[in-house]
Each structure stands twice: as structure tokens, then as C-alpha cells.
Amino acid sequence: MNHSLVENLEKIKSTLPASVTLVAVSKTKPISDIEILYQAGQRIFGENRVEELVKKHADLPHDIDWHMIGHLQSKKVKKIAPFIGLIHGVDSMKLLEEINKQAKKNERVIDCLLQFHIAKEATKYGLSLSEFNEFLKSKKFNELTNISVKGVMGMATFTKDEKVVRKEFQSLIDISKIVKNQFNTASIISMGMSGDYLLAVEEGSTMIRVGSSIFGVRK
Ligand SMILES: *Cc1c(COP(=O)(O)O)cnc(C)c1O
Which CATH number is 2-212 given? Predict the structure, then answer.
């Protein structure tokens, strides 16, 4: 048994204000690792691949709150729709419509975060503010009865330059205010990973997604 996982978890939690929720990112890690943290009281786990998420959901206690944190393909939504707790990376109308459709089929409302593009890297997914404004104007957006927009998500540029990272986090804070003006349910700001969660929390994150600092580096 690897008790250092629990130590890692407790150490990170001890640095967090009560207002910040910790998502333990367990992607690529074995069921046995998740069980250790579950025994220690952790209930929120994040995964970024649908097949892995479905398998882990089936194999682990059903009071785990599973978060989908990675890019989600529309055709795979139906596999996680029955149980997913929060989808972090929603960045297209097509995906919203599919989540809404599958949520209806499962007679539930699915909580989503809108992912915004805040980093310099062109490879990272996410909406721009102008795309968000287009969403708001479209009739389809108002017909999403089975989606609850709970907030925003973003990833900063992978760099050691603190100033750049802080600036990007601040831009997500600004965006979150605009989104909250439209959806009063949208209070979550999901930003911060192993390398930058301390900065993210200082800038106003309410939810951090931490993997390697808890579980160790991924292969
Ligand atoms: C993998 C991943 C994380 C966690 O990354 P670490 O650097 O291991 O903490 C957070 N967010 C997303 C979207 C990820 O894909």
C-alpha cells in the first residue's frame, strides 16, 4: 500500500482555503490508488478518457463524484451521461446539445463548466468570449433544459513565467464574472493543476484539478 498518496493529498488540502474544492486527477492510475484515497475520505476524482472513466466508475464505490476533465467527443457522451458529476471541458454547441440530449434520456440534469481558451498555446481547447456571446444569442442555447452551467474552466500556458500564468488566470476570473451574469448557478472557477494550483488559488480559483502532485508522475 502506498500511504504517501494520502500524505500528498493531506498536504495539498492543508494549503487550500475551505472555498476551494480539490479534484484528484486519477487518469492512468490504478483502481488501487483511488481506493487508498477513497478510504482517506476523498470523493471527487477526475478522468480524461471516457473508456477509463466508465471502467473505473463500474469498479469503484458509487458515491464517488466523477468529473470528466478532458476533451469530450460528442459521440462518447452517452457512455458517461448516466453517472457523470461534472463535465469540465464543454466548448462547443454541438457538445452542449449532445449532453442535453443524453441527460434527457437519463432523466437528469448534467452539470457543466464552459471551457475558455486563456493560454497562448494554440493547441488547447476552449471558447473565446465572442463565441460565448454567439451561444447566448442562439435559440438552441436557451433550449438546453437538461444542462446546468455551473461555471468556467481554463488551463494556463505551461511555463515557469509566473506573470504569464497569473495574467491568464485573471482573464478567466474576468470571464467568470461575465458568465455568472448570465447564469446565476455559475459560481465554479476550475483552474489550477499540480504545477500552478497555488497561483490559481491566489488568483481566485474555486476548484483545482491535481494529478501528479498526489499520485506521482504519469508514465
Ligand atoms: C491531467 C490533467 C490535470 C492534472 O494534471 P497534473 O499536472 O498531473 O496535476 C488537470 N487538468 C486537466 C484538464 C488534465 O488533463
Answer: 3.20.20.10
- The per-residue pLDDT for range 83-112, each reduced to its tens digit, is 999 999 999 999 999 999 999 999 999 999
Is residue 3's pLDDT more than 70? no
Task: Show me where the domains of the chain are located.
Answer: 2-212
pTM of the model: 0.96
84/113 Cα distance (integer angstroms): 13
Residue of 23, 33, 48 to mutate, ligand 1, most atoms within 8 A of C-beta: 48
Give all strands (DSSP E) within 29-109, no chain letters: 44-47, 65-68, 86-90
What is the grid cell recorded at 36?
Answer: 487508498
Is 209 near ligand 1, meaning CB less than 6 Å away?
yes
